[in-house]
Each structure stands twice: as structure tokens, then as C-alpha cells.
Automatic annotation (TrEMBL):
Highest rank taxon of the organism: Eukaryota
Protein name: Methyltransferase type 11 domain-containing protein
Segments of skewed composition (Polar residues): 48-61
Listed transmembrane segments: 82-102
Low complexity bias: start-end ranges: 111-124
Keyword Nucleotidyltransferase: no
Keywords on record: Membrane, Transmembrane, Transmembrane helix
Biased composition, class Pro residues, residue ranges: 62-71
A GO molecular-function annotation: methyltransferase activity
Signal sequence residues: none
Ranges where the record places region Disordered: 24-73, 111-140
Record-linked InterPro entries: Methyltransf_Superfamily, SAM-dependent_MTases_sf
SUPFAM superfamilies attached to this UniProt entry: S-adenosyl-L-methionine-dependent methyltransferases (SSF53335)
Length: 399
């Protein structure tokens, strides 16, 4: 075989393709010719549109529907917004009504004095030298004391008595002490120390303690002093054994008699406050003078204040008074004026006096007497309660 023939045979052999090779070649051609699979585009969700109600317009430029009308307030809604002012107004109205009711009820008894005019009321005031009526005697004095417990509590007077008692220190004089309603609130601890020092001959410390070292209680009513004597026995520890044996009859002559306990450290004196007042038993002046509701029960309150100024220690001594009289409002003052005569006949007290004016008059007429404090502490009583603190100037000379 020549060369050309061999070449043709070799070419024919090389051109021969098996079936397997043909399938592989076809697969390769398809892999080359088949385009790549396309990734599906993300699905776009349509925005939500509310379904329109029948009869409504689909125009976007139309105004929104009006808001619904406001819901009417219920009583509970009104109470939640205004409970504080409503409660305050109710309480104030209740106090005012209760005060007016109590003021009227306290004056049911008829009066021998007419209080229809200022002149007749003034003349009636001075018809009696003091405001202790005969009705407040004997067993009535003790019953009268018990009946005051509830009224004084709701009027806030009990709280003021406790506050007043904290001012009592050193040698104390309580004027118009009545049944002794302040005794249980005093600090009696220094009294025991002072009594023991007097018995053993020890010299007491020069500084005035925060409490009572000696006590003098004064009132014009023997029966009231007998009630206070029993209160002293309960309130003062050193007196528990000695007080019950003393009888009220020892002061029944109304001439300035007195009961003396614990070597003169405790005394009860039967005396009219218009007369000169006794000094303490162991010194010359009182460190504290206390009086509750006394200026309403004397015929000349200015003279009584001058008497107190004569026996209080200058500069450091204090006169502390809790009084009642005219208040802030004309309605209340008019009611007090209208029933003043009846109230005096029943309780021996002129409750319509102008306490602030009385104090100013006493200061102007008593050299050295000064006002330290004057306030009306209980607003619920419409200004009818008055707290006064007085002192004597250091350089003042008393009679």
C-alpha cells in the first residue's frame, strides 16, 4: 500500500466514532448551547388599601371624616378631677355649720342681761366682778369639766393645751386654772428634783429647766379648785400620798385662803385676779404665767394683765395666754354678740370680747409690757381662738 492509501485509511479510522463517543459529544454541545437558568424576580406585594364602603367617594383629595363627638362626662369622671377642692369645701362648710350650731346650742338658756345693743351689753358685763356663775358650784363643777372633753377635742383646744404646757418652766403661776385641765400635760419631773433639793439642802442649778420646779394655781371658785386638787393628785407623782387628805372647806371663806403641798412647791390659791397676786413661795418672780380662757371671765381684763406683769420675771419670764373672742368674719362675730348675754349666764364667759384690742390696751397702759407673739392658731375656729405671748422689758420697774 502506497503512502497516500495508508493516509486515507488512517483518516478513515480516525473518523470512525463509537456510539458512546457520540453521546458524550452531544451532551457537551448541549451544555455549551443551553443558556443559564434565569433567577425569578421577587414578587412585589401591593400596598394595602382599605375597602371603601358603599356610597363613599374614592377621590383622594376629599377631607377626612369628622371625629366622633366627645363622650359625656360621668359623675365619676367629674369626681376624679375635682375631688380635692370639693372635699376641702365640704370640710370647711361642715366646720362652719358645726361651729354655728354649737355656738347657738351653747346659748339656749335665757340671760338676765340684754345683749341687743352694745351699751346694754357693756353695762351687763360689769354687773358681776367675775364670770363664775353660781351654777358652776358643788358637783356641777366636776360635771362641767367632764362635759368639755369632747367639744375641746373636736375644736382643737386639747392640742393647743398640750402646746401651751410645753412653755411652762421654772416657777409657774396658772391663773384662772378652773378644774385644772392643763395639769396632765405639764412636765412635772423637775418638781421632784426641786423638792428633794429643798429637803436635803442642796443648791438647785441656776439654769431654768424645761419643766416645772414650783406651781401656783389660782382661781376665784373654791369648787373649781377642789376639782383641780384631785387632778393634781393624779398628775404630780410626789402628791399622790398627800393630796387626798386635804378638804376644799379649808378655803371656803373666799378671803385668799390656800392649800400648800410639798413644802410650798405646789399651792392652790383662792383669789380674785383683780387683787395683788402672791409671788412664788421660794423666790420673788414667776418664770412662766399660764392662762387659758381667763380674760373672758373677769370684769377688767386690762387690770388683770397689768397684775400679771407685776409678778413675771423681767426679760426672761413669759406670760402665755390662750383666749377666745371675736374672730375674722362678721357673721360669726354677729352670732357671738347676739348670744353673749346668754352664754355669760350659763358659763360665766363673755365670748365676744376683742382679745387683740384688750392686749394692745394693756400694753399701752403698762410700762415695760411687750407683745412677743400674737396669732390665731386654729383656722377652723374662724379666728376666734387667740394665742398671746407677753414679756416685761429688762429695765422696766414694776409697782
Amino acid at each position: 500500500m502506497n503512502v497516500p492509501t495508508r493516509r486515507l485509511a488512517r483518516a478513515a479510522a480516525s473518523a470512525t466514532i463509537t456510539p458512546l463517543q457520540w453521546r458524550l459529544a452531544s451532551s457537551s454541545r448541549q451544555a455549551v448551547k443551553t443558556p443559564p437558568a434565569q433567577v425569578p424576580s421577587p414578587r412585589v406585594t401591593k400596598s394595602y388599601r382599605p375597602t371603601q364602603k358603599p356610597g363613599t367617594s374614592s377621590n383622594a383629595s376629599s377631607p377626612p371624616p369628622p371625629p366622633p363627638p366627645p363622650k359625656a362626662d360621668t359623675l365619676l369622671d367629674i369626681w376624679r378631677r375635682a375631688w380635692l377642692p370639693l372635699t376641702g369645701a365640704s370640710v370647711l362648710a361642715g366646720f362652719l355649720g358645726f361651729y354655728i350650731f354649737g355656738t347657738t346650742a351653747a346659748s339656749l338658756r335665757s340671760s338676765p342681761c340684754s345683749s341687743s345693743s352694745s351699751s346694754s351689753s357693756s353695762s351687763c358685763e360689769h354687773a358681776t366682778p367675775t364670770g363664775r356663775p353660781p351654777a358652776l358650784s358643788g358637783d356641777n363643777a366636776e360635771q362641767f369639766d367632764k362635759e368639755l372633753n369632747l367639744p375641746e377635742w373636736w375644736m382643737g383646744i386639747t392640742k393647743l393645751r398640750k402646746r401651751l404646757a410645753t412653755h411652762a418652766r421654772g416657777n409657774v403661776l396658772e391663773l384662772a386654772m378652773g378644774s385644772g385641765r392643763n395639769l396632765e400635760y405639764y412636765n412635772w419631773e423637775p418638781l421632784s428634783t426641786a423638792v428633794e433639793a429643798a429637803r436635803t439642802g442642796k443648791i438647785p442649778p441656776p439654769k431654768i429647766p424645761q419643766g416645772i420646779t414650783s406651781f401656783t394655781g389660782l382661781d376665784i371658785s373654791v369648787d373649781m379648785l377642789d376639782v383641780s386638787r384631785k387632778s393634781l393628785a393624779k398628775s404630780v407623782p410626789p402628791m399622790s400620798s398627800s393630796a387626798p387628805i386635804v378638804k376644799a372647806s379649808s378655803m371656803a371663806d373666799h378671803t385668799g385662803g390656800q392649800l400648800s403641798f410639798l413644802d410650798g412647791h405646789v399651792r392652790l390659791v383662792n383669789l380674785d385676779a383683780h387683787h395683788p397676786l402672791p409671788p412664788p413661795a421660794h423666790t420673788d418672780k414667776y418664770d412662766t404665767i399660764i392662762q387659758t380662757f381667763g380674760l373672758c371671765s373677769v370684769s377688767d381684763p386690762v387690770a388683770v394683765l397689768s397684775n400679771l406683769a407685776n409678778v413675771v420675771r423681767p426679760d426672761t419670764g413669759r406670760i402665755v395666754l390662750l383666749e377666745h373672742g371675736k374672730g375674722y368674719y362678721g357673721l360669726v362675730n354677729g352670732l357671738l354678740d347676739k348670744n353673749a348675754g346668754k352664754h355669760f349666764a350659763k358659763y360665766g364667759c363673755w365670748w365676744n370680747r376683742d382679745i387683740e384690742a384688750i392686749v394692745e390696751d394693756a400694753v399701752s397702759k403698762t410700762p415695760g409690757l411687750e407683745v412677743v407673739k400674737l396669732e390665731r392658731p386654729n383656722i377652723t375656729q374662724m379666728g376666734t381662738l387667740v394665742w398671746i405671748e407677753l414679756k416685761m422689758a429688762a429695765e422696766a420697774k414694776t409697782a
